[in-house]
Amino acid sequence: MMDQNLFSAVDGFIGETIVEEDDGLCGAVEAAEAAGLPSIQVSPPQGKLLQLLVRLVGARRILEFGTLGGYSAILMARALPADGRLITLEAEPGYAEVARRSIDAADVGEKVAIRVGPALEALPALEEEGGPPFDLVFIDADKVNTPNYFAWALEHTRPGGLIVADNVVRNGGLADSASEDEKVKAQRQLHEMIRDDTQVSATTIQTVGVKGYDGFLVALVEPKSG
Ligand code: SAH
Ligand code: DHB
Ligand code: MG
User: Fold this and answer.
1) 212: which of 46, 132, 161, 169 is 20 to 30 A away, CA to CA?
2) Is 167 a pocket residue for ligand 2 (Cβ < 6 Å)?
3) pTM for this predicted structure
4) Measured distance CA(70)–CA(198) in Å, rounded
5) Which residue's CA is the closest to the ligand 2 atom numbered 4?
6) Ligand 2 neighbour 90 (Cβ under 6 A)
7) Choice from 90, 167, 170, 171 to test ligand 2 binding pocket (greatest atom count within 8 A of CB)
8) pLDDT tens per residue, range 115-146
9) Which residues pair with 217 in a beta bridge?
């Protein structure tokens, strides 16, 4: 039933036609591979969607949870205007170093700040610094904390802004109410949180592709009422 070769072939065709990876992105993949980072970055078609979303909301300020080798950060930074800024949070210092080099090599270094350390610990400082709210938040770090990151993002994203969470479908685990998997339970909790929140309008899209069967959630922050 699951035909991974076919999913990958279709991503391959999409990559040959409408989604090209430039030298900066290819360089980031190669550097991550050479440094032994896991190959779990967004696929090129998913990355292109992130770029389109950045452009559609006219984002100038982006927050990312989970940098890895900088692949998605480079993609989103490329879609920002010249004065746009992206902050990306990464727990692993070694990953952050690889990402820093690839982001600089891709010529988006001025737009991207990497904060090293567990994301939950970085949030109080971000809060204290103040500044305008984010236009787009991409949640793609440790999956058990996705609901916590989402809750924070909701308070720090402007009305009309987007919150995108990767890896919420988890091979269909999302449908399993008896799942004991903490990562699955967290994604179910996320959906239940959103059900009960009138401040946000959201959907989840299931995906297949080079990364198998998963999916992402897109949430629009509604204007505060009352
Ligand atoms: N967004 C990246 C992929 C991120 S993979 C891309 O598409 O290119 C998930 C990343 O989250 C890994 O690099 C992992 O080290 C990081 N991570 C895991 N736990 C974390 C935490 N508590 N805080 C911040 N980052 C974390
Ligand atoms: C993993 C993390 C991701 O962000 C992803 O897209 C796929 C896999 C992981 O931690 O295994
Ligand atoms: Mg992911």
Assistant:
1) 161
2) yes
3) 0.98
4) 33
5) 140
6) no
7) 167
8) 999 999 999 999 999 989 999 999 999 999 99
9) 165, 204
| Among the bound ligands, the one closest to the CA of 47 | 1
Residue 160 CA, ligand 3 centroid: distance in Å: 23
Other residues' Cβ atoms within 10 Å of the Cβ of residue 192: 11
187 Cβ contact list (under 8 Å, min separation 6): 143, 146, 167, 168, 169, 170, 173, 174
Q: Is the Cβ atom of 141 under 6 angstroms away from ligand 1? A: yes
Burial classification of residue 83, based on how many CB atoms lie within 10 Å of its CB (0-12 exposed, 13-18 middle, 19 or more buried): exposed
Q: Determine the Cα–Cα distance for residues 222 and 216; give it in Å rounded to an integer.
A: 19
Output the CA 29–ligand 3 centroid distance in Å.
15
DSSP state of 42: P
Residues 103 and 77: beta-carbon distance below 8 Å = yes
Type and span of the H or E element at 162: strand 157-165
Cα 141 to averaged position of ligand 3 atoms, centre (Å): 7
Tell me, using a 6 A CB cutoff, whether residue 140 lines ligand 2: yes
What contacts 181, CB < 8 A, 6 or more positions away? 170, 173
- Indicate the helix (H) or strand (E) that contains 90: strand 85-90
- Taking each helix axis from N to C end, the angle separating 182-195 and 146-155, rounded to the nearest 10 degrees, works out to 30
Q: Which ligand is nearest to the CA of 41?
A: 1
